[in-house]
Design a protein that fits this description.
Blueprint (H helix, E strand, L loop, with lengths): L1 E5 L6 H15 L2 E8 L4 H4 L18 E2 L7 H14 L4 E7 L2 H11 L4 E6 L4 H7 L2 H8 L4 E5 L3
Parallel strand pairs: 1-2, 1-5, 2-4, 5-6
Antiparallel strand pairs: 3-4
Length: 153
């Protein structure tokens, strides 16, 4: 069993990790711990030194897998992975830069995930109407079951 777990380091992240750990134990699953860094904003890219904000050698608008040592999120992800591994759960860390939905779907396919787990922040109808929902996008595009961890118990 292969479980892709997407986290964004929000207040919901600990709850998602806890649920993923329970599921992984019960199903003897391997966890692929994914954090997605959104691509730079087109407005930022118009600034004179915008290329310094992009990973070296990456063309604008392309997906990139970032080396763990080059991201501030890597320390947090590696700490979470170490804790999961200490409890006997095989864990791999992935950091991707792309649109959140695209990155989650792409990584689930690359890693042949049997399930995807992510959180739902419950921002409300106006936010959903204007911005959209990552969880909704993943549910619509995923080829495997998706588990949504709600923001509130």
């Amino acid at each position: 069993m292969r479980l892709l777990v997407a986290i964004d380091f929000s207040e919901l992240a600990d709850r998602i990790i806890g649920e993923a750990e329970k599921l992984a134990r019960n199903l003897s699953a391997k966890i692929f711990l994914l954090h997605v860094i959104p691509p730079p904003s087109p407005i930022i890219e118009l600034l004179p030194d915008a290329e310094t904000l992009l990973p070296p050698g990456e063309p604008h608008g392309k997906e990139s897998a970032l080396p763990l040592s080059d991201t501030p999120e890597s320390e947090k992800l590696l700490a979470i992975a170490a804790k999961l591994q200490e409890s006997g759960i095989d864990t791999t860390v992935i950091i991707a830069q792309n649109n959140e939905v695209t990155a989650i779907i792409d990584e689930s396919e690359k890693n042949d995930a049997d399930m995807i787990m992510l959180g739902s922040h419950g921002h409300g109808a106006l936010f959903h109407l204007l911005i959209g929902s990552v969880s909704e996008g993943v549910i619509r595009q995923a080829s495997c079951p998706v588990i949504i961890v709600p923001a509130k118990k």
